[in-house]
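Per your request, structure below.
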């Protein structure tokens, strides 16, 4: 039997941030992770010299919790172009952030994607999202994202050609049924900072967080069999148990439901990412490319090494293509469909692309339809000696996972009589 003050189950971003706060407070803890690496859904694999994030993700530098917890300079963050490239009607159209690239914004007005009226409406949305604190945005009256965009007066053209693939890729919901609170929050984050990739992949984020923790307090390859909050006991499949004063369940929602013997309260959205190796990039700038036609499997694609060269070996390019959901059929059918779609966009050069790996993340984001964020920050303390955190307890985002971990640590400190 091992003893500790706080047993943290789950080594994703929430568990890591909880552990850091406890370490800074001088409270003994044990971080228990079922996998062989920390990070949860934020992971990067190295394959043939390429860095493959497990599903296309970006870091938004304006996230309040990320600014509080991460060293951006040490991560060597690399920005995307402030805007996007939209594929529509057989051509690529550049949409730029007019506040950061005002001259490029003129091209956007003339592109057929965004009219001058739409540009004015986007400015209205941007202004509305800057009012109050980020927390205030998550308490506003809500509707769906689609209805909110229509309420701002956006045309069907800009909704279908830009917002549907752009926000669909963020929320993993191209129906735009996600709560308008997330529209306001995320649009503020994109407007206030940059969307970036760490030079060594998204997995560098949990690696940086873990570097602050003592190795002796981390147990990998250690799946928890059951917990008993009444006694503070965490039981492992080997029959070994850990005795604690407080248990923090920092796992994904389905695993938390199993450990707590509760029904899964929220549905999940899936996403699939297909990676290819190429000798030449199909685009030349660090753009996110959006499917503005709504046809074909690929919602968005990019060339990550154009953002950070470390993502690919010298002389090669990495192609990342995102498909919303979990398409039926095997990976061979999936890759073939993506391949054909990309040939329609970029021509015969795509025939030279070599498939590297396909990731199916079936539980990528918790549901965020209206009602799911009521409240946005769920109460982490679930009973005496029991605390639950993770992005299913907050906004479904990197920021939400990290913030819930901090709130879990604060609750644990209060439980131990160490709260401020």
């Amino acid at each position: 039997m091992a003893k500790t003050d706080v047993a943290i189950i789950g080594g994703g971003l929430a568990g890591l941030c909880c552990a850091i706060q406890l370490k800074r407070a001088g409270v003994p803890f044990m971080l228990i992770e079922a996998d062989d690496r920390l990070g949860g859904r934020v992971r990067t694999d190295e394959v043939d010299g390429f860095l493959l994030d497990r599903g296309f993700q970006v870091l938004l530098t304006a996230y309040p919790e990320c600014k509080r917890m991460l060293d951006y300079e040490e991560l060597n963050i690399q920005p995307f172009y402030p805007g996007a490239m939209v594929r529509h009607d057989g051509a690529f159209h550049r949409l730029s952030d007019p506040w950061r690239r005002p001259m490029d914004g003129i091209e956007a007005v003339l592109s057929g994607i965004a009219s001058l009226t739409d540009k004015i409406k986007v400015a209205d949305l941007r202004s509305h999202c800057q009012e109050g604190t980020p927390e205030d945005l998550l308490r506003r009256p809500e509707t769906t994202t689609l209805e909110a965009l229509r309420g701002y007066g956006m045309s069907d053209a800009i909704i279908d050609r830009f917002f549907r693939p752009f926000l669909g890729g963020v929320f993993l919901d191209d129906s735009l049924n996600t709560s308008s609170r997330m529209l306001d929050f995320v649009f503020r984050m994109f407007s206030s900072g940059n969307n970036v990739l760490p030079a060594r992949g998204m997995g560098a984020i949990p690696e940086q967080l873990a570097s602050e923790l003592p190795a002796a307090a981390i147990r990998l390859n250690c799946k928890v069999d059951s917990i008993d909050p009444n006694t503070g006991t965490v039981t492992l499949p080997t029959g070994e148990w850990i005795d604690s004063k407080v248990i923090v369940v920092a796992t994904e929602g389905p695993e938390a439901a199993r450990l707590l013997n509760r029904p899964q309260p929220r549905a999940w959205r899936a996403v699939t990412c297909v990676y290819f190796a190429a000798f030449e990039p199909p685009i030349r700038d660090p753009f996110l490319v959006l499917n503005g036609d709504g046809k074909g499997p690929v919602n968005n694609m990019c060339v990550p090494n154009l953002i950070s060269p470390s993502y690919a070996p010298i002389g090669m390019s990495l192609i990342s293509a995102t498909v919303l959901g979990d398409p039926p059929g095997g990976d061979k059918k999936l890759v073939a469909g993506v391949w054909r779609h990309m040939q329609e966009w970029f021509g015969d050069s795509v025939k030279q692309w070599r498939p590297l790996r396909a990731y199916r993340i079936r539980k990528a984001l918790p549901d965020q339809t209206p009602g799911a964020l009521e409240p946005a920050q769920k109460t982490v303390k679930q009973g005496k000696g029991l605390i639950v955190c993770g992005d299913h307890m907050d906004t479904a985002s990197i920021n939400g996972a990290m913030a819930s971990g901090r709130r879990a640590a604060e609750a644990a400190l209060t439980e131990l009589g160490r709260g401020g």
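The chain has three domains: 2-42+203-267+369-415, 44-78+197-202+268-366, 81-193.

Regards,
D.
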